[in-house]
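Figure-free illustration: sequence to structure, shown twice.
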Amino acid sequence: MKKLSFLTTLVLSVLFFPLRLFAVGIDERINDVMAPITSQAFKIVFFSVTFGGITIPFVLLWLIVAALCFTAFMGFVNVRGFRHAVDLVRGIYDSPDSQKGEVSHFQALTAALSATVGLGNIAGVAVAITLGGPGATVWMILGGLFGMSSKFVECTLGVKYRKINEDGSVSGGPMYYLSRGFAEKGLVLPGKVLAFFFALMCIGGSLGGGNMFQANQAFKQAVIATGGEQSLLFQQGWIFGLVMAVLVGAVIIGGIKSIVRVTSKLVPVMVVIYISASLFIIFSHASLLPHAFASIVSGAFSPDAMYGGVIGVLIQGFKRAAFSNEAGIGSAPIAHSAVKTDEPITEGLVALLEPFLDTVVICTMTALVIIISGLYAEQGMDGIALTSRAFEQVIFWFPYILSVAVLLFAFSTMISWSYYGLKAWTFIFGESFTSDVTYKVLFCVFIVLGSAMNLASVIDFTDAMIFAMSFPNIIGLYLLAPGVKRDLDSYFDRLRQGQIKRYK
């Protein structure tokens, strides 16, 4: 009863928080309350270290070093496993006899992609280029390529240590490979502590980057498309948030199977819309491409680059790449754990496609459109507004299309992250109907809060929660990576010998 009482009190307090802020200036009041909290969380997570006079946030160094280590240790699996990963997604090796799991390789990939291919690709890239200049693009691409290896390791572990519940549903992710994997090595208490910390941060990440940031930027684009400051929605983010909360709530009630039914249809559509528009603008300005690429390359290594030279540009590029593709963060293994397979390695290989599609392909296209436009050098624009203006220069009606794309990106990201947060929530509070409903209501309330807050506060909270997940996750990856390496070598040996059966 104490647990139920605590959960009930928590939900009611959050539910009535917006009502206490009632009436005129509700958006401003929400921001006034939340801004100091987000600022403090950001300072804690993004503490900096200095080497040879160069200052860099420790969490970025943590992610970069891990990605490089896993790339080398796994024998450049991001390159040699790429073609087989595509075959796996195509279903060529899908066994009809596999009973464990809930979704196919393709559905697991689209569910995870729907969480990563989102507004980080549209608004996040604009933020990186605004602060770091065109050169940030190079570091985003490299962050994506090396991040493929981190994604492979964590998603393999997600399947290897997942929990199959009595009803056939699956619970997986870092919470489980930290607790179960460490227990195998006799490190029961450290594993439990790290698993709990990860789950706590994952809940915060689901409410921040997987929710508030998406709602915030979707609302901003809706205002732009409906008249800017003359729009009826202007400074009425909480109303927009309420509508989004109802739509999201209608999907997440059904769990992962309901989510993948939506994402498996939404993701291909929204990616095609966005990439088609990007390619149209890029090729219609083909004469400007040499200058754009020259700006990207020179800006990446110029000591006089924006935001403090080479290191500043590198930081912005890797920071946005990590936020966009979430490699090493530990979120994707939660979705990939639900896959129908008896070979954990196969899902790790499928997962390495995420950073490639998300960062190397989509983020690069966004960057090229923004750089070609030249608007990144202007003052007063950030996030989604900059991207929208860049597209509008060529396609005057594109802000309306972008509004639809942004809503699809935001919606798909929110429903996937709701699943991540739910699995973390139930890991802490237990698998029960009350626990399930409590989290889903809380998630919907934060959609309203995110729509009303300003971008700076949302990004600080988002970055703090999501990047904090990487601390326990990567510790686990380092400890358990040797087992993944053995499984990978065994799998490729059996593949070469024809022991891995093709079904198509």
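We now fold a second protein in the same way, so the two outputs can be compared directly.
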Amino acid sequence: MLISIGIVFATVAAVFAIYTLMRVLMSRAPNSRTQDLAASVVFRVSALHGLVLALVFASEVVEYNQLSFESASEVNAISDIYFDSMRYGEGTEAIRIAMRAYLDHIPTEEWNSLGRTGDLSGSAWVAWDDAYTAILDLTPASPRQDALRDNMLDKIHAIAENRDMREYQAKTGLNVLFWIAAIVGVVMVSAGYYTFAPTRDNVILLSIFSAYTGFILFTIYAMSNPFSDPAALKPRLFFELRADIAKIE
């Protein structure tokens, strides 16, 4: 919450500082041609600036929702492996032990590690490898067991793919060029408003523009790292599955 307020107020302060500086450096009573040119430039620059923010914002929303979908898919794969191992019969306890261990690491240790450094949990990889090895060691004795083993192999590979994508998303943050473009856009748009006198109405309109721009910048910043606050995606489904499994143990 404090970060959002800080970014919004910083943006408002920057806009008015640039506006005031331009009023000091430039003519406070420009002729009509200058006013028309300034309005034209501000319109074009603000349109491009808005487009940049909109595209990046949309991209972050898509990636955020994709991570949520991938997490749900991973939880479904874990559930399938766990309960298919029970359907398989004897000799599958090692699979369930590994899956329980995996669920213990993901929503706590791994989520925290991804938020801090973007790295996956080594302990979770060990649990995943234990489950994979146990599935490979199964010797099906019937078509039913053969089908269950094949499904578990498919699901264990799906889990690995989802984890790799999760690490990629954690380590692929916004390029510094975006922040440069965003800041330059705010500066240029703010500078272009110098032709408008600081009347009450104009100040209110500038405040609305700067506050909303700051809010959008905060939203983009928050969603650029979905594993840490202020907009962290909570691994709720992993906790729920672990709780469901604990009830039948």
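Summary for the second example: The radius of gyration is 27 Å.
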